[in-house]
Amino acid sequence: MSKRLIKSYAVVILVVLIIVSVIAVTLNKPPIEQATIYEIQAIQGIGEILSLRIVNYIGDSETFDIEDLLNVKGIGKEKLKELRKEFR
């Protein structure tokens, strides 16, 4: 095999490993719909009242996407970003 072909295979393998790693990390995050008030409160900047609003909003929604949390009073882009780090 030529060096160029070996390098090409190495790049493909590296890309596949990165994709698999990203998928594994994403799947290890629990869905926010199953989170308790206490799990949500553990996130920096989210207290008891806001976590209760989040849980109530999710419970009242027929269909839910984490982006919808921007509709909750007190949730902005930064808090949503923090929630996304912990939940899917």
Outline the structure in words.
The chain has four helices and no strands. It is an all-alpha fold and 88 residues long. It has two domains: 1-29; 31-88, Orthogonal Bundle (DNA polymerase, domain 1). It is elongated and about 65 Å long. The model has no long low-confidence stretch (mean pLDDT 88).
Strand and helix layout:
Elements: H1 3-28, H2 37-41, H3 48-60, H4 77-86
Entry keywords:
88 residues; DNA polymerase, domain 1; 2 domains; 4 helices; 0% strand
Q: What is the structure about, briefly put?
A:
Helix content is 61%, strand content 0%.
Radius of gyration: 19 Å
Overall mean confidence score, pLDDT: 88
Task: Estimate percent helicity.
Answer: 55-70%
CATH topology of the largest domain: DNA polymerase, domain 1
The CATH top-level class label of the largest domain: Mainly Alpha
Number of helices: 4
Q: Outline, from the CA principal axes? A: elongated
Tell how many strands the DSSP assignment holds. Answer: 0
Q: Biggest sheet: strands, sense, closure?
A: none
Outline the low-pLDDT stretches: none
Pairing-aware structural class of the strands and helices?
mainly alpha
Order of SSEs: HHHH
Strand content: under 5%
**What CATH architecture of the largest domain would you give?**
Orthogonal Bundle
Number of domains: 2
The CATH superfamily of the largest domain is known as Photosystem II 12 kDa extrinsic protein
